[in-house]
Structures are given as C-alpha cells and as structure tokens.
Amino acid sequence: MPILRKLAVWGALSLAALVLVLFAMPSYRQGEASVAGKTARDFPLEIAGKPGHLTDLKGKVVILNFWATWCPPCVEETPALNRLQKYIASRNGVILGVAADEDPAAYEKFLRDQSVTFLTYRDPSTRDNHSPIAQGYGTSMYPETYVIDRHGKIARKFIGFQHWDSPDMLAYFDSVLGQT
Questions:
Q1: 35-177: CATH homologous superfamily?
Q2: Are 102 and 126 within 8 A, CB to CB?
Q3: Is the peptide bond before 44 cis (omega within 30 degrees of 0)?
Q4: Integer CA distances (angstroms), 155 to 25, 61, 63, 122, 158, in order
Q5: What is the C-alpha to C-alpha distance for residues 113 and 74, in angstroms, rounded to an integer?
Q6: Pair type for strands 93-99 and 144-148
Q7: Chain centroid to CA 26: how far?
C-alpha cells in the first residue's frame, strides 16, 4: 500500500505542476484566450486630417496603443513610446496611438505638451472613457497595446504600462522588425 500512496502523491504533485505551468504561459493572460496569430480588426481612422483605415498600414509593423490623456500610466509611458517610434521608424515600424478621450481640446493639448511624435487618433465615438475601437479589441483598461506584424496579424498583446525603450523590449522589436 505505501507504493500506491507514493504514486498518488507524485501524481497529484505532477498535476499541480502542470496547472501552474499552463497558467504561467503567455497565452494565458487574465483568463483570456491568446490573440496571437489572429487578424487585427480593421477600423476607420483619420490621421493628419486624412481618412484611412488600419489596413492601410499593412506591410509595416504596427504598435497599436490604446491610451487616454486622463490615464496616469499612459502619460508616464508616452516619452518611451516617442523614443520607440524613433527607433523603429527607419525599419518600417510605426506606433499608432488610439486615444479614448471625449474632449478634443484636452487631447490636442496633451499631444503638444508631451511632444508626441507617433501617429495618433482620437476615437470620436468614445463615451464614458470607453473607446468602441478599443472595446472591439477586447480592451477594458488603459494602456493596452497590440503588436501587429507586416501581414496584419497580431503578434503580441501587452497589458498595462511598459518600458518601451528598455533593452529587452528593443530586442523584442528588433526580432519582430527583422521578420518578413
């Protein structure tokens, strides 16, 4: 009987370890299914007064950042996003910020005050601090960022504030930008 007890204990420990490994995997984020490999949802936008769509950026690596002027972590990561834009621009990479701001004046002031250098779009359909474009991606908090490859597929999702210009993050973008 002691051998059966040992086997049962080892079996239970193995099962517990397997569950922990599964929950630690990047594809398991806060209980949601992985979005990696899915086609990025297209949406209309306007940049520099010209109408367009997200799909117009196909062929580029797009860092789609959902943010808002009233979001402290969003404000904090803006300088690093500016530096990342400078880093990726020469290799056909672009940051596209979609702001969940109802007040156009606050949005424009933020862009000026923060010297934002990446493409931005204020979702005019935003109500009660919720952007329908962001919600279409499953975003429920800001900031949230999607890396979209040159073929329009989501490569990765980042939830919350990031150090976009850290050595690890720059190495990640080097690898994504190097893919064809």
A1: Glutaredoxin (3.40.30.10)
A2: yes
A3: no
A4: 15, 10, 10, 24, 10
A5: 14
A6: unpaired
A7: 14
* Amino acid letter for position 2: P
pLDDT in tens, the chain (180 residues): 678 788 777 877 777 666 655 555 544 444 455 788 899 999 999 877 889 999 999 999 999 999 999 999 999 999 999 999 999 999 999 999 999 999 999 999 999 999 999 999 999 999 999 999 999 999 988 999 999 999 999 999 999 999 999 999 999 999 999 886
Those residues with Cβ within 8 angstroms of residue 69's Cβ, 6 or more apart along the chain or in another chain: 75, 99, 101, 106, 107, 109, 110
User: Per residue, what are the HEC states of 71-122?
Assistant: CHHHHHHHHHHHHHHHHHHHHCEEEEEEECCCCHHHHHHHHHHCCCCCEEEE
Global pTM value: 0.80
CA 153, chain centre distance (Å)? 13
How do the residues of the chain divide into helix, strand and coil, expressed in percent and rounded to 5?
A: 40, 25, 35
What are the tokens at 114?
A: 């923060």
